[in-house]
Amino acid sequence: MSEPSPQMPSPQQLTTMLSLQAAMNHKVDPDWIKAAYPYLRAVVVEAAEAIEHHGWKWWKKQSLDMAQLQMEVIDIWHFILSEILLRQQGDEAAASDHLLHNCRDGGNEVIIFDGRSYSLADLTLLDKLELLTALAAARRIEIVVFAAIMRDCGMSWDDLFAQYVSKNVLNFFRQDHGYKDGSYQKIWHGKEDNEHLVEVMATLSATADGYPTQLYQALKQRYPA
């Protein structure tokens, strides 16, 4: 297999993200595969929230909030990974192969939906978000559409990987330290945990082996005993 282009995630990145997502799904519900939750319904909701952060109302002044939009893209990716894992019955290797085959740049792709052709190169970011919403509602996964949205939001696959892993690790950290029973402290030493996460991320390399473990341990060292 040839090395992936800069417009594609590496096999190791996909393996890491799928493993983290499967572990989180299991933490939420050990029988998550049997439960077959409607993950693409969650994509619909998150994509709609992304549209709100973009701004779409012609009758009032709105400003695009790119930082929040990028966060919604990360949330969407969590649920896309979950749906792909579900369709592969939890087989992470099969899910990784599927993603490697489908994670193309998507800039010149044409999507056929409801009898109509959509050229991604001709669509605005808002149009692409709307198309992603419609596809998810129809229970279709088109990674090229997601990739085109990601690119329009100024994110590379490396950016996606770093942000996805960091949010996943923080979610695990919260769960392990009492988030569910209410004993978790979201503010440490005068800063919210998200702020600590950003500071820790700046000291680590997202491409290093064991990045998720390093991130978790760094948060643990900062968290009050």
CATH 2nd-level architecture of the largest domain: Orthogonal Bundle
Query: What is the CATH superfamily classification of the largest domain?
Result: Type II deoxyuridine triphosphatase
At CATH level 3, the topology of the largest domain is: all-alpha NTP pyrophosphatase fold
Instruction: Describe the largest sheet.
Output: 2 strands, antiparallel
Give the uncertain stretches in residue-range form: 1-6
Structural class estimated from helices and strands: mainly alpha
Rg from alpha-carbon coordinates: 18 Å
Assigned CATH class of the largest domain: Mainly Alpha
Pfam families: dUTPase_2
Protein name: dUTP diphosphatase
Organism: marine sediment metagenome
InterPro entries: dUTPase/dCTP_pyrophosphatase (IPR014871)
Structure explained in plain terms:
There is one protein chain. The chain has helices spanning 11-28, 32-35, 39-54, 66-87, 92-102, 125-137, 143-152, 157-176, 193-201, 211-222, and strands at 110-113, 116-119, 187-188, 191-192. The protein has 225 residues and is mainly alpha-helical. It folds into 2 domains: 11-155, Type II deoxyuridine triphosphatase (all-alpha NTP pyrophosphatase fold); 158-222. The strands form 2 sheets. The chain has a two-stranded antiparallel ribbon with strand order 1-2. It has a two-stranded antiparallel ribbon with strand order 3-4. Strand 3 and strand 4 (191-192) form a beta hairpin. Helix 1 packs across helix 5 (92-102), helix 4 (66-87) crosses helix 5 (92-102) and helix 4 packs across helix 8 (157-176). The longest helix is centred in the middle third of the chain and has 22 residues, at 66-87. The chain is globular, with a radius of gyration of 18 Å.
